[in-house]
Amino acid sequence: MEPLYKEYCTIRPDGGMELHIPEDFNFAYDVVDRIAREEPERRALVWSQDESCILYPCTDVHERTFTFGDLSRLSSQAAHCLAKRGIGKGDRVLLMLKRHYTYWYLLLALHKLGAVALPAACMLNQEELIHRIQTTNIGHVICLGEPFLCEKVRAAAQGTSVRGLYCVGAEQPGFERLDNAVEDYPETFDRIWTSVADPILLYFTSGTTGASKLVLQDGAYPLAHIPTALLWQNVRDRGLHLSVADTGWAKASWGKIYGQWLCGSAVMAYDYDAFSAVRMMDMINTQRVTTFCAPPTIYRFLVKNNLVKDGFGTVEYAVTAGEALNAEIINKFREQTGLQIHAGYGQTESTLLVGDFVGQPVCPGSMGKPSPLYHPVIVNEEGRETAPGELGEIVIPPEGRCNAGLCLPPTADMDMGGTVWDGDLYRTGDIAYRDENGYFWFVGRVDDVIKSSGYRISPFEVESILIQHPAVMECAVTGVRDEDRGFVVKATVVLREGYTPDRAMTNTLRNFVKEKTADYKVPRIIDYVHALPKTFSGKIRHVEIRNSDAGAGKAGGAEKHS
């Protein structure tokens, strides 16, 4: 059968894209069940469990391939099972399943029921769990049957709105095991009417620049990921796509289910607890992954340790998103693999907004060009669209955009923790500029841009220079308050093994930056650390570094070692 995206979108001769969204569209019924009827043996999901997984000793099966027929059947059985336990339309269910294969059919079951799924990372602490449960009025929690996780969930759920606790993979006290229970239910499920405007997903943002915010998406969200898979990831019909992401983050929706299946590609679920580059690349070649997406953290690690040369033999296309990736890493990856990394930019509140789209020349280090679905622009503080080279905020005006995939406005019963909506204007909070060829270049979050002695300094620009030095594994650049200059540039650096964090190294790095940019951008403080603070999804938490330096006083010229 032909990929189903062709029925839901039109690509115009001018490159623009339009979505055709039925009023009752439901991804589980209209995509998964339909493919299962027409081509039940078509491959949908390949799951491979790494030896690092805690549940590894609890199961005899470490690899499974699921067809659309399998997932249609399992999601129908799970829908019956969950309905029997009181889960129905509008109910909110917390999912903490990492990359376990049960996530896919349980999510589809919730879609069939018209319930709302809140995927979350298993690394959340008890306080963060309580906040999510109370903020969103969670009624049920489904998690992996890991003892420490179940204990944490059980403690967090006490005295809250939670009515049901369920687990998968292993038995745990106080939890009903679902993956065994679903097998006792009918293999077909009569369609329940749902509206495409009904909420289907809740996410919390990763909190790179502040407190996490709540994001609500409706039933049109899966269709908005057609350009993500088709025009950015360049997935293949009957190919196999791997996005390195935990199901607790929106990146899983970007790369592990919706757009890929609409475009005909199967998805790869590489289930691991401890990341091993060697094991991951062996899996890529063994399973014959054709398209690949990973956050910049993964690419930086692979390139800096010279680990990629023979690890991408079957991969035909590579992309990255999550934060900006330096041109130095992009160029070295291409030298070692022959693959060009294609950048993509979006938010938890959206789908892909800017990127290196198929058929467009790549400008390494840039964000790419605006999405044909949303038409984002860069505006200055007065709201005027900027000229080439002028800094401004990336926004999405209402004119000509598609609203599918852009988060719903705040609701009365949930404290969203802030919103991207300013009336009908979508504000990203990210500062960038466009060049004369229309490419967007990332500068930083609104709060990240450093203002020093009247200059505006892009943290990413300084990071991009520092990462070129062979001693630097990772770095983050922030501003530290200074009584004379307002702010000065600080670099927090992780050195590669074999390099010493001393004054000589500090002078070396400062001189290295000075050779490549203006003096006012050279870090006046260099702090050496063993690791950078990151979100669970691997993004550097600049806000945590900034907060640790609050009130630092006059910076002078000292370096700092940690």
Account of the 3D structure:
The chain has 562 residues and is an alpha/beta fold. Among the domains are: 220-447, ANL, N-terminal domain (Rossmann fold, 3-Layer(aba) Sandwich), CATH 3.40.50; 457-561, ANL, C-terminal domain (GMP Synthetase, Chain A, domain 3). The chain is built from 17 helices and 29 strands. The strands form 7 sheets. The protein has a 9-stranded mixed beta sheet, with helices on both faces. Strands 6-5-7-8-9 form a 5-stranded parallel beta sheet, with helices on both faces. Strands 19, 20, 21, 22 and 23 form a 5-stranded antiparallel beta sheet that branches. The longest helix is centred in the N-terminal third of the chain and has 17 residues, at 68-84. Residues 551-559 have low confidence and may be disordered.
Could you tell me the strand content as a percent range?
A: 15-25%
Q: In terms of structural class, how would the helical and strand content be classed?
A: alpha/beta
Q: Based on the coordinates given, report the CATH architecture of the domain at 220-447.
A: 3-Layer(aba) Sandwich
Question: What does the main sheet amount to?
Answer: 9 strands, mixed
Mean pLDDT: 91
Which fold name is given in CATH as the topology of the domain at 220-447?
A: Rossmann fold
The CATH class name of the domain at 220-447 reads Alpha Beta
DSSP E strands, number: 29
In one word, what is the shape?
Answer: globular
